[in-house]
């Protein structure tokens, strides 16, 4: 009789003798099966055979990410996405957790909850569904990364001498506890707060203040709140702001610009709002109150929606240019459509694919029409000026701006994105590089030669262009119809026209 | 109400299906509609006297699936508590099969898009895995351990918490 090596008891009788057919099932079916098994049992299947080794990790029930091994201690990093508290408790209290340096905890499914936040205006809705009172066997003095999602409370009180990164998503924490962690972690450089409900802050107008002079990177995402630093953080290099939807425009505007007041010397700013018009500042008094110079900013990225016919977004861009006299690198991500709320689901992907196909079809159609016509170049200079930008002078355009990236949906010839391109080509005198992404799966034939012409009409000292395309697949169309590389004396200005997904967009930059 | 009558009329029609090994089966249209694949074929007018060929489903599991669908279609809407109980009992008995048949049902239900059956078979398989040691699971499903002892040791260590004898979970709150 064979004995079980784990329990020492005799093995139970088999149901059907012999051949292993279950291992031949496709991954998704096996993962579905493991999803329905208790987390522990699912994890134990990792030892069945090589076929099973990694399956259980992506079942959604429990997700332990790859650990970092250095030979001496086996558990350097754990990521737990658990459906039940028991698993969380078991893992954390296990002696092997002592050596954990990177701890990432979250309840499974929490990732999808922020989408609910996005659409529902259920302010302050607390999705945190587990309480973290302690760290189990994890030694706080070892922790370098603490990443919590969907959690109530923070492990307070312990010294965290090595903690460098604190990331909270969809958590509900006391402001005092957060401040406590910051103070007990002298090495803490990065703090991300994403949809974090700070329990002492009931009123939206009540300021959230933290004191973190040693921070080098901060992200605040969530509902528009007054958020500021008590004392300056001189080493702060990167700040990210991501406001969710809020109807009260005055509040969004005030919180947005005042947020920046704490970060005058930061180098890298990444800003995201739902509607760009909500941050546009007009009127002298308001401008003086809200717009303070950010002389340290070298790179700024702004994302948001603008009304197809509205000029207010341009005012917001002008405000930002005015605030950043030394910016070298500007990234604008413009959109006219609300993001799909089901972005993570299959439904969302299908929608996206359909959108892209529609883009491609439209683009092809336009291309075909243009091919039929003789290569006329007329009517391309009808691209209009932009209220709020055109005819005004901005210090950064004359002295510092080297690179502009614009992502938008090319919906009509005279859309804001196109006009912005024209504006920057004509006004940014030391521009070296421009990236244009006119929409997913769209070809850029309809915009190429326009930019060429704008460049050609510039003063000779900067009139030079190099046309490159980052989308290999569209190469054919590009060379067939658009202007081949125009190269003059110097390569002062390069522009890249991108089509395709965001990955490429980032990769090319 | 007209639509309901129509449906009832349609469901009297018998749909013929053919297994991979050439056996013919018949079931009411309402039963065939529980399979996404069959429903699409019916909608596209592919259901004819020759029968819909199901290239990857053998006669043995197909007979079971026809059984399942016929039973569930007959009791699809407006169940009384007793009827629901009876259907549950039917399911429990229905899925008492050996691993070979279970495998066939998993594949076939997935292929034919019979959601209820697919769930039933998946849950049954999960139940079989539940509470067993790896050795027992290998035995049940005939899985061959192709790890070296060192590799096995390493995985056990890595997922040590999963092999612990259950103890009351330490509370985090």
TrEMBL record, chain A:
Record-linked InterPro entries: F-box-like_dom_sf, F-box_AtFBL13-like, F-box_dom, F-box_dom-containing, FBD, LRR_dom_sf
Segments forming domain F-box: 22-58
Domain (FBD): residue spans on this chain: 395-436
PANTHER family reported for this sequence: OS08G0328600 PROTEIN, PTHR32141
Name assigned to this protein: F-box domain-containing protein
TrEMBL record, chain B:
Gene3D superfamilies listed in its UniProt record: Potassium Channel Kv1.1, Chain A
InterPro entries for this protein: SKP1, SKP1-like, SKP1-like_dim_sf, SKP1/BTB/POZ_sf, Skp1_comp_dimer, Skp1_comp_POZ
Domain SKP1 component dimerisation: 116-162
Keyword hit for Protein transport: no
Pfam family, one: Skp1
Keywords: Ubl conjugation pathway
Domain of life: Eukaryota
Pathway: Protein modification; protein ubiquitination
SKP1 component POZ domain segment(s): 14-73
GO biological process, one term: jasmonic acid mediated signaling pathway
Family indicated by similarity: Belongs to the SKP1 family.
Biological role stated in the UniProt entry: Involved in ubiquitination and subsequent proteasomal degradation of target proteins. Together with CUL1, RBX1 and a F-box protein, it forms a SCF E3 ubiquitin ligase complex. The functional specificity of this complex depends on the type of F-box protein. In the SCF complex, it serves as an adapter that links the F-box protein to CUL1.
Subunit field text: Part of a SCF (SKP1-cullin-F-box) protein ligase complex.
Record protein name field: SKP1-like protein
Organism of this sequence: Oryza meyeriana var. granulata
